[in-house]
Amino acid sequence: MKKSERKLLAETLDKALEPPPKRKPALASHLAEYDEGPLTSTELPKRVTPPNPPSRGVTPPDPTRPAAPQRDFNKRANSLDRVALPAGIFPGSSKKLYDALYIRTRGAVIPAKSIRATKRELSDWSGIRNAKTIDAHLRYFSAVGLIVSSWERGQNDGALYEVLLPEETSGLFVGCTW
Predict the structure, then answer these.
(1) What is the pTM of this model?
(2) Distance, CA of 161 to CA of 158 (rounded, Å)
C-alpha cells in the first residue's frame, strides 16, 4: 500500500470514528420539543402527543382506505423476477424497454395485452435514447417471442406491440421451469 493511500485511509477512519458534532443552540431548542427526555412544567404544553398512541409502533388499519393502491401501481408476473432475470433473458438495457411496455399493458391498473406506440414514445418511456438500440431490442424480443409487433403501411400512430410473458412463448425457453 502506498504512503498516500495509507494517509487517505487514516484520514477517512479518523473522520468516521470522530463523535458527531454537537447541535447548534437554535436547532437544539427546536428539537427539544420532540425529544423523549424528561419534561419540565414549562415545556409540557409544547409537546404534542396523539390522543391514542398506537401500541408498539403499529398503526391500526383504516377501514376507509383500501389495502392496495387503486391507481398508481403496477402488477408484475412472478416468473419475470424468479426465473427470467436469473436465466439472463434480458440482455443489456432490454429490460428497460420490456418494463416500459409491460407497465403500460399487462401491469397497468386495467391490463391490456397490446399498446400502440411510436419509437419516440418507447424512447421516452424506457429512457433509451438510441433508436438503433430500441430497434435491436425489439428484434430480439420478437425473435424470442416476448413481444409481437405489427405495423401497417401509412399508420403514423406507431406500431402495435403485444406483450407476452416468458411462459406464454412458444417453448423457446425449454430449460426454464415456469
Answers:
(1) 0.57
(2) 9
The pLDDT tens digits of the residues spanning 26-80 come to: 555 555 555 455 555 555 555 455 555 555 666 666 777 776 666 666 678 888 8
> DSSP readout, 101-168?
HHHHTTTSSS--SEEEE-HHHHHHHH----HHHHHHHHHHHHHHTSEEEE--TT--S-EEEEE--GGG
The label of the residue with cell 435491436 reads 136
Closest to 105 measured CA to CA, from 134, 138, 76? 76
How far, in whole angstroms, is CA 113 from its chain's centroid? 22
Q: Would you say 167 and 178 are in contact if contact means Cβ atoms under 8 Å apart?
A: yes
C-alpha cell belonging to residue 17: 470514528
Distance of CA 70 to the CA centre of its chain: 18
- What radius of gyration, in Å, describes the C-alpha atoms of the chain? 28
